Amino acid sequence: MKIVFVFIIMVLQIGGTDAYAQSQDETVKKISEAFNNKSADSLSIHFFDRVDVIFPENNGIFSKKQVHRLLHEFFKKQGKSSFEIEFKGFSDNETYFCIGDFKTDQKNYSIYLLIKKRDKKFLIHQLQIEEEKE
Questions:
Q1: Does the pLDDT of residue 124 top 80, yes or no?
Q2: Domain spans in the chain, listed from the N-terminal domain onward
Q3: 111-134: b or e for each residue (b if 16 or more CB lie within 10 Å)?
Q4: Cα–Cα distance between 114 and 89 in angstroms, integer?
Q5: What span, in angstroms and rounded, lies between the C-alpha atoms of 123 and 134?
Q6: Burial of 67 (0-12, 13-18, 19+ CB in 10 A)
Q7: In whole angstroms, what is the distance from residue 25 CA to residue 30 CA?
Q8: In angstroms, how far apart are the furthest CA atoms of the chain?
Q9: 50-88: per-residue pLDDT in tens?
Q10: What are the pLDDT digits (tens) for 15-53?
Q11: Which pairs from 80-89 meet CB under 8 Å and 24+ separation?
C-alpha cells in the first residue's frame, strides 16, 4: 500500500511540473506571436499591472496601459519585421526569462523579457528593447 501511495505522489508531482512548464511555454509562444504580429494588444494581455520598461527612448516603471501605448508607437515605426526567441530559462521557481531578436527593415533589436508567475499565470514583469549596434 505504501508503494502505491508513493507512486501516486510521484506521478502527481511529475504531472504538475509538466503543466507548469506547458503554461510557461504557451505564454512564451503567445508573446512571440504578438511580437511577430507587432500587436501591442496581444502583448499587453501578458503584462503585470506595472511593468519595468527599458526602451531606446523611455525607461521607468509604467502602467500596463502606458506600456501598451509605448509598444503601439514602437511597432508603428517598424517596417516588415520578424521575432525569434534565442534563449530562455529559469531564474528561480517562479521567474522565467527570454531573450529574443526582433529584426526589422530599418534596425535590429534585442528583446529581454522577465516573466513572473502570478495567480497561476505567467506575466511580463520587465521588458527591455535594446537597439543592436552594427
A1: yes
A2: 2-131
A3: bebbbbbeeeebbbbbbbbeeeee
A4: 10
A5: 32
A6: buried
A7: 9
A8: 66
A9: 999 999 888 999 999 999 999 999 999 988 999 999 999
A10: 344 444 547 889 999 999 999 999 999 999 999 999 999
A11: 80/104, 80/105, 81/35, 81/36, 81/38, 81/105, 82/36, 83/32, 83/35, 83/36, 83/111, 84/32, 85/28, 85/32, 88/28
**Rounded to whole angstroms, how far apart are CA atoms 81 and 104?**
4
**pTM higher than the cut 0.85:** no
Q: CATH code for 2-131? A: 3.10.450.50
Asked if 78 and 104 touch (Cβ cutoff 8 Å), the reply is yes
pLDDT grade for 118, boundaries at 50, 70 and 90: confident
DSSP 8-state secondary structure symbol assigned to residue 76: H
- 56 contacts 131 by C-beta, under 8 angstroms: yes
Query: Which amino acid, one-letter code, is at 94?
Result: E
DSSP state of 94: T
The three cell numbers of residue 3 are 508503494
